[in-house]
Amino acid sequence: MPVISRFPVRYAETDQMGVVHHAAYVPWLEQGRVDWLAELGVSYAELERSGVYFPVVGLELAYRRALRFGDTVGVETRLSELASRLLVFAYRVFREGDAEPAATGRSVHVPQDAAGRVRRLPEDLYERLKAAAERET
Amino acid sequence: MPVISRFPVRYAETDQMGVVHHAAYVPWLEQGRVDWLAELGVSYAELERSGVYFPVVGLELAYRRALRFGDTVGVETRLSELASRLLVFAYRVFREGDAEPAATGRSVHVPQDAAGRVRRLPEDLYERLKAAAERET
Amino acid sequence: MPVISRFPVRYAETDQMGVVHHAAYVPWLEQGRVDWLAELGVSYAELERSGVYFPVVGLELAYRRALRFGDTVGVETRLSELASRLLVFAYRVFREGDAEPAATGRSVHVPQDAAGRVRRLPEDLYERLKAAAERET
Amino acid sequence: MPVISRFPVRYAETDQMGVVHHAAYVPWLEQGRVDWLAELGVSYAELERSGVYFPVVGLELAYRRALRFGDTVGVETRLSELASRLLVFAYRVFREGDAEPAATGRSVHVPQDAAGRVRRLPEDLYERLKAAAERET
Question: Deepest of A10, B70, C30, C38, by most Cβ within 10 A of its Cβ?
Fold first, then answer.
């Protein structure tokens, strides 16, 4: 089951076109995967302290309809692909109340250690992510 | 010939991984296309005042090597695709002095009017963009 | 009674010092006053549509202890000063669970119309703000 | 002599009021003091690597006139106060071509080590800063 993160559009996230600036969605997706991990019982803050980092190596966003200050945003996150050295998250960004997503996206991550070297996911974490990803398909 | 935008990494653009946060690249690409247009003699600020907007409908980024505070960034921008209702810009982000890009990206734009309706590019602008795009191939 | 806004620290809000960057607090205060107004039944989005803007003319922040990714932030907002052409909001930013604020701040606003001219607050809005400010003292 | 940092307003720095959002000035001031230090031959990136951090403990901004996308910004920075455990920078933000500042500001810093403990400035750095501050008065 995908996890939903909800928050209001911040005024600072708008631009002079009167809508949310396209860069503002990027931290939203990040919050989406942090919440997805938290739902699984995994604190990303603790993960980093244990030496596991998920830097972004790829990012894709498709913007379908504008969001505005005053809107409440829902980010629906799921893990769409998993290997021992790869994670792909998929996102759908909704304006609360809408059936169609305002944007969709994907982020690709390669697990690293604190020194920035690619590393395998710890076995137990991998198993938990795997089980969660399968529940989402 | 692609246009190069240069600027220092801002401290605020770093994150606790000690490198530039992946969201910080998005305004860099935007500055890249603003500078590309300026090089062609087109002020994006004036373009908007004349009722032509280039909202982002698609965005892709591939991050290859981390950038750090203290680095000077160069964004190389070119127009890679053009139709009367579509513009695609392609970017290569370099750390000054490096031969290989730190990141590559693409942004897709659909021209709109002030009310957010899709519109054709003004003919003269289209011709100038077309000529510039051809010089870059 | 002050209004409390709560949200998690975003990863993008950290910097290479490993703590929340000082600029990230500024949109938090903004969210604080938007929520304070909402609690009063005033939508800032609608206020702007009706031609009343509260641009920031002054801002002060004192940072007392660092906040970190993983922390939940609470922003306590109150209206500390009010005149027909002036609003001052005061803020205390807490890390959830702490008794002492991590930061305190103040923002000064002058009501403007859509053209950027100083204007008086609408009478009924002024009365509601006044009553709320008095309840907070 | 104050040091001037120059850069274009970024589109992402605007908000739906059609002007630069007040939070966007904060990284500008930061760039101002980084450039001020660089002018003195001090790399803030290296300073941190040597264990000297200048976290912001206080920040003040007064916004006098709006800045817009299309404007070139100049930030004039000087060191206005110095003690062995305190630095205060003062800033004037200009729109290029204007005689009057668009904003003025101040940031207060307490030197820290990597663990976040207050520390004295290294003696040689203190002397260089002192000499520079005196030249500016």
Answer: C30
* Exposure on the CB side of residue B67, measured as CA atoms within 13 A: 32
Judge contact between C4 and C28, C-beta under 8 A. Answer: no
Angle made by CA atoms C109, C115, C121, in degrees to the nearest 5:
45
Only one residue has tokens 């000064």, namely C108
Max Cα separation, chain B?
47
Q: Around C59, how many Cα atoms within 13 Å sit in the side-chain half-sphere?
A: 27
In which region does residue D27 sit, left (phi positive, over 0), alpha (psi from -120 to 50) or beta (all else)? Answer: alpha
Best mutation target among C9, C11, C15 (most B Cβ atoms within 10 Å) is C15
Q: Interface pTM (ipTM) of the complex?
A: 0.96
* Regions in chain C scoring below 70 on pLDDT: 1, 137
The two three-digit tokens of residue A113, written as one number: 């250690």
Catalytic residue numbers of C read: 15
The neighbour count for residue B135, using CB atoms within 10 Å, is 10
Closest-CA residue of chain D to C27: D23
Q: What is the number of residues in chain A?
A: 137
**Is the minimum CB–CB distance between B26 and chain C shorter than 8 Å?**
no
What is the Cα–Cα distance from B10 to D35, expressed in whole angstroms? Answer: 11
What chain C holds in terms of domains, given with CATH numbers, is: 3-136 (3.10.129.10)
Q: Is C21 on the interface with B (CB under 8 A)?
A: yes
**Are the C-beta atoms of A126 and A117 separated by less than 8 Å?**
no
> Tokens in use for B20?
């530039």
pLDDT digits (tens, 9 = 90+) for C29-39: 999 999 999 99
- Give yes or no for a contact between A21 and D24, defined as CB atoms under 8 angstroms apart: no
DSSP states of B52-89: -B--EEEEEEEE-S---TT-EEEEEEEEEEEETTEEEE
pLDDT at B1 over 70: no
